[in-house]
Design a protein that fits this description.
Helices cover 35% and strands 23% of the residues. It has 613 residues and is of the alpha/beta class. It has three domains: 245 residues, 4-Layer Sandwich (Glutamine Phosphoribosylpyrophosphate, subunit 1, domain 1), CATH 3.60.20.10; 190 residues, Rossmann fold; 144 residues, Glucose-6-phosphate isomerase like protein, domain 1 (Rossmann fold), CATH 3.40.50. The strands form four sheets. It has an eight-stranded antiparallel beta sheet, covered by helices on one side. Strands 5-6-7-8-12-13 form a six-stranded antiparallel beta sheet. α7 packs parallel to α13, α9 packs parallel to α13 and α15 packs parallel to α18. The longest helix is centred in the last third of the chain and has 32 residues. The N and C termini lie close together (10 Å). It binds fructose -6-phosphate (F6R). Fructose -6-phosphate binds next to α9 and α15.
Length: 613
C-alpha cells in the first residue's frame, strides 16, 4: 500500500528515487511523484497512473544536480487517483513536502482546524494535513515541528519529510506502516517502504519500529524514540537478497518468472531443516521450548488472501499428523471477534510480506492475551518477524508480482515442515512415517521442476476455449479444497473473470444451480483418499451440461471419459498434492490473463502489501 523512497548522498537523487519506485511499484500504482531540492528550492513532479507516466514528465530532469529527495507510488485510500492527489504534498509555502503510507484517521477534524487558521488545501487526501500541520508548528526546527504534529495525529503512517530550511536532511517517522533505512558509507542514506528499493545500493538495512523518528543525512543517521525522546541504538541487518532477484530475468512477467522459481523456493525453504536420512525436522528460529510444546492444546492460524489459503491447507495437515485442533481465521475477522485465547493457544501468522495490517493486528491481540506467536514469513526483519516469539522463514526470495505464487508454495512447504516438526516433537507419527513424509517434501521441488515446462505448454493450448468466459468455478475436496479457492482467487485477481472456489461436496447445496454450458468448472481430482467422492461430484456437473477441466493423476484414463480437457500430474503422496496442484491453477490464471491482455503483474485496484485496514 503505497511505496516510499528517500535518499540523500553522493549520487544524483532522481535516478535513485525512480529506480526505488520502480522496485516498489507493486505496492501501488495509482499515481507517482517525486521531489528534490535543487539550488535551495523544492522541485516536484507528479502524475496520475503508473510510474512510466511520471518518468515521461520528468524527462531531462533525470540528470538534475540534486542529491536529496523523496518519491512515492500511491495506492489510493482517500481521494481519487489523480495528479492533485499524488504525493508529495506540500504546505502553503511550498517549502515543505511530505510523503506518506498509511491512513490519518483524524484527518477530517485536523483539516477543518487548519482551514480555519488559513491553510489552503489542494487535494482530497488525508496526507495533506500532515504537511500543513507540520508547517503550523514549524519555526526553525523541523524535528520539533514533526514531533508536535505527530502528537496530534491518529492512525498509521510511514512518513518522509523534506524542508528547504534544512537542506541536508530528511526526516522519517514510522507508526504501523513499514519503513526501512539503507545505510552505505560511500553512497549515503536511503529510506524505503521495503527492501527491494534498496538492493541496488546496499544490503545493510535498519528496520524502524513504531513511534520512531529518523534523521537521515548523507553521512549518517540518527533514530529517536518518540515515546521517550531518547536516541535508540538499532541493529544493522544484512540482507542476503541480490538486486537481480527483483528483476524479470528474461521472463515476460514477474508472475511467470516467480512461478518458474517455485522449485527453488521450495528447496530453499526446506533445505537444511530436514535430515534426509531420518526425516527429522529442525527449526532453530521457532522459539518454542519443550515446555511450550507440551502446553499447546490448540492452534490458531491467522492470515489474509492467498496466505489464508495456505493456512486452510495446514489445518488438514496439522490435525491429521500432529493431532492438535486448528482454527483458521481471516485476520480481518479474527481481530474483531470475541477470542478465546490463553497461553495454551499457539497463534501463527502466515504472511509473505510480514506487514499486512490485519494479520499484524491479529497477532498483537493474541500476544496480549498470552498466546505464543509464530510467524511464517518471507521478509527477513519485517514487523511480524520482529514481534513474534518465533519465525519460520519461507526463503522464496523477493516476490514482485502482485499475485502471490512462489510465496504461496513456499508457505505450504514451511507449513508442512512445521507439521512434521510438531508431529515429531509430540510423537504423533511413527519414525517411518516421519521419514516418508520428509522425503516426499524434499522430493516435491524436483517434481514441480520437471512438470512446469510441459504444463505451461498444455495450459496455453487448453485455455483457447476458455479465456473469454465470464465466470468460472473451481472445486476440490479435502486438502485440495483450499487449492480450488486459491485457483479461483488467482484467476479473478489477474484476469477479472468472476471465479469462485468451492468444496466439491458443497456444490449441490446451492452453486450447482449456476451450472450450464457457459460456466466452466475446473475440478481437482487426484487419486487420493476422497477420489471416488470427487468423481461423483464431477459426474453431477457433467449431467447438467457443465464444461469441465479436470486436473488429476497420470494414468487415470477414466478422466478422459468425462471430458477432453484433462491436465495430468504425476502421482505423489496425497499430502503433497496441494503443492503440486497449485502449479496448473497458477499457470491457467496466468495464461488466461495474458491472453486477455491484462496486466498480470499489476492488476487493477490491487497492491501487494496491504498495510492499511
Ligand atoms: C493474492 C495475494 C494476497 C495476499 C494477501 C496477504 O495473490 O497476494 O491475497 O496473499 O494480501 O498478504 P501477505 O501474505 O503479505 O500477508
Amino acid at each position: 500500500m503505497c511505496g516510499i523512497v528517500g535518499y540523500c548522498g553522493s549520487r544524483r537523487v532522481v535516478p535513485v528515487i525512480l529506480e526505488g519506485l520502480r522496485r516498489l511499484e507493486y505496492r501501488g500504482y495509482d499515481s507517482a511523484g517525486i521531489v528534490y531540492l535543487q539550488d535551495g528550492k523544492l522541485i516536484k513532479h507528479r502524475s496520475e497512473g503508473k510510474l512510466s507516466r511520471l518518468e515521461a514528465i520528468i524527462g531531462d530532469a533525470i540528470i538534475a544536480p540534486a542529491h536529496i529527495g523523496l518519491g512515492h507510488t500511491r495506492w489510493a485510500t482517500h481521494g481519487a487517483p489523480t495528479t492533485a492527489n499524488a504525493h508529495p504534498h506540500s504546505d502553503c509555502s511550498g517549502n515543505l513536502v511530505v510523503i506518506h503510507n498509511g491512513i490519518i484517521e483524524n484527518y477530517h477534524s485536523l483539516r477543518e482546524e487548519l482551514k480555519d487558521k488559513g491553510h489552503i488545501f489542494t487535494s482530497q487526501t488525508d496526507t495533506e494535513v500532515l504537511a500543513h500541520l507540520i508547517e503550523e508548528y514549524l519555526e526553525n526546527d523541523l524535528v520539533a515541528a514533526v514531533k508536535k504534529a505527530i502528537a496530534r495525529v491518529e492512525g498509521s503512517y510511514a512518513l518522509g519529510v523534506l524542508w528547504a530550511g534544512m537542506p541536508d536532511a530528511l526526516v522519517a517517522v514510522r507508526n504501523q506502516s513499514p519503513l526501512v533505512l539503507g545505510v552505505s558509507e560511500h553512497e549515503g542514506t536511503f529510506l524505503a517502504s521495503d527492501i527491494p528499493a534498496l538492493l541496488p545500493y546496499t544490503k545493510e538495512v535498519i528496520f524502524m519500529d513504531d513511534m520512531e523518528l529518523a534523521i537521515l543525512k548523507a553521512d549518517g543517521h540518527q533514530i529517536f524514540s518518540l515515546v521517550t525522546g531518547l536516541p535508540v541504538e538499532k541493529k544493522v541487518t544484512t540482507i542476503d537478497w541480490n538486486p537481480a532477484m527483483a528483476e524479470k530475468a528474461g521472463f515476460k512477467h514477474f508472475m511467470l518468472k516467480e512461478i518458474f522459481e517455485e522449485p527453488q523456493a521450495i528447496t530453499n525453504t526446506v533445505s537444511g531443516r530436514i535430515n534426509p536420512e531420518t526425516g527429522e525436522v529442525v527449526l532453530p528460529e521457532i522459539g518454542l521450548t519443550a515446555a511450550d510444546l507440551a502446553d499447546i492444546d490448540r492452534i490458531f492460524l491467522v492470515a489474509c488472501g492467498t496466505s489464508w489459503h495456505a493456512a486452510l491447507v495446514a489445518k488438514y495437515w496439522i490435525e491429521k499428523y500432529a493431532n492438535i485442533p486448528v482454527e483458521v481465521d481471516i485476520a480481518s475477522e479474527f481481530r474483531y471477534r470475541h477470542l478465546l485465547i490463553n497461553k495454551r493457544v499457539l497463534t501463527i501468522s502466515i504472511s509473505q510480506s510480514g506487514e499486512t495490517a490485519d494479520t499484524l493486528a491479529g497477532i498483537r491481540i493474541a500476544k496480549e492475551m498470552g498466546a505464543k506467536i509464530i510467524t511464517i514469513c518471507n521478509v527477513v526483519g519485517s514487523t511480524m518477524t520482529r514481534e513474534a516469539h518465533g519465525t519460520v522463514y519461507t526463503h522464496a526470495g523477493p516476490e514482485i508480482g502482485v499475485a502471490s505464487t512462489k510465496a504461496f508454495v513456499s508457505q505450504l512447504a514451511a507449513l508442512f515442515l512445521f507439521t512434521l516438526y510438531l508431529a515429531q516433537k509430540k510423537q504423533t507419527i511413527s519414525r517411518e512415517l516421519g521419514l516418508e513424509l520428509g522425503q516426499e517434501l524434499i522430493g516435491i521441488a524436483g517434481v514441480v521442476e520437471r512438470e512446469l515446462p510441459r504444463l505451461q505448454k498444455e495450459i496455453e493450448h487448453l485455455i483457447e476455449s476458455y479465456y473469454d468466459c465470464r465466470d468460472f468455478l473451481f472445486v476440490g475436496r479435502s486438502l485440495n479444497y483450499p487449492i480450488a479457492l486459491e485457483g479461483a482467487l488467482k484467476l479473478k485477481e489477474i484476469s477479472y473473470i468472476h471465479a469462485e472456489g468451492y468444496a466439491s461436496g458443497e456444490l449441490k447445496h446451492g452453486p450447482i444451480a449456476l451450472i450450464d454450458k457457459d460456466m466452466p468448472v475446473l475440478a481437482l481430482v487426484p487419486q487420493d483418499e476422497v477420489y471416488q467422492k470427487s468423481i461423483s461430484n464431477v459426474e453431477e456437473i457433467k449431467a447438467r451440461q457443465g464444461r469441465i477441466i479436470l486436473i488429476g493423476t497420470e494414468g487415470d484414463s477414466h478422466l478422459r471419459t468425462i471430458t477432453d480437457d484433462v491436465i495430468y500430474l504425476p502421482k505423489v503422496h496425497s499430502a503433497m498434492n496441494p503443492i503440486l496442484y497449485t502449479i496448473p491453477a497458477q499457470l491457467l490464471a496466468y495464461a488466461i490473463a495474458t491472453k486477455r491482455g491484462c496486466d498480470v503483474d499489476q492488476p487493477r485496484n490491487l497492491a501487494k502489501s496491504v498495510t492499511v485496514e
